[in-house]
Design brief:
With about 240 residues, the chain is an alpha/beta fold. It has 2 domains: about 140 residues, HAD superfamily/HAD-like (Rossmann fold), CATH 3.40.50.1000; about 80 residues, Transcription Termination Factor Rho, Rna-binding Domain, Chain A, Domain 1 (Orthogonal Bundle), CATH 1.10.720. About 45% of the residues lie in helices and about 10% in strands. The strands form 2 sheets. Strands 4-3-2-5-6-7 form a 6-stranded parallel sheet, with helices on both faces. Helix 3 packs across helix 5, helix 5 runs parallel beside helix 7 and helix 8 crosses helix 9.
Length: about 240
Amino acid sequence: MTFSITSAGIRGILLDIEGTTTPVQFVYDVLFPFVRSQLSDFFLQNHNQLEVQEVIVALKLDHEDDLSDDPSTPEWSDPPAQYVNWLMDQDRKSTALKALQGRMWQDGYRSGKLHGQVFADVPPALQRWRKRGLDIRIFSSGSELAQRLLFGSTEFGDLTSALTGYFDTRIGAKIDPKSYLTIANAFHLRSEQIVFISDITRELDAAHAEGLATILCVRPGNQPQVTHGHRSISSFDEILN
């Protein structure tokens, strides 16, 4: 089903990453295994860095909360490699975890061990939308750093010039409508002038509650979504000027 930006009065596009611009498999088959394989060495080599120490403090606070709520939480260790792996097993959206992952992925991208992945329809769509004068931003549970690194190193080149902003869980959860009110204010647009594209209906429901237009992105490898009232696409080619 196609969607016309002009007829909908859209001036801003908010994009999810995993399952929307980027294959789910890239996250689970490339990014997460990289963190697991490098975790012990990373802590050993970087534990004296202030930013890493701050992440460890934040992880410790998360651990205290988890320990009181979930008996399966592993004991704290220094470095907290076991706890970090447990968080990833749970697919937790911990801001501290995402900060750690982003810092580790930075090393991977800089060394050439990692390269960002996006679907082939994404780069030309970004170009079309920018030429149309649209404001394109990202909202992902991954850290802002991780978002910039991914889009800056794709096989199609550096795509960051097409993007004007990045949002992560520091502004709020992706299933919290208040997050989208904050984002709309950052766009300096009315909510109805922004379309949010994601592969998760709960996120789209939250955005819709704040008045954003919504599109469900159905990509290969995505989890099937329950019955919903959102328009759906399988490619950005279906979004017309």
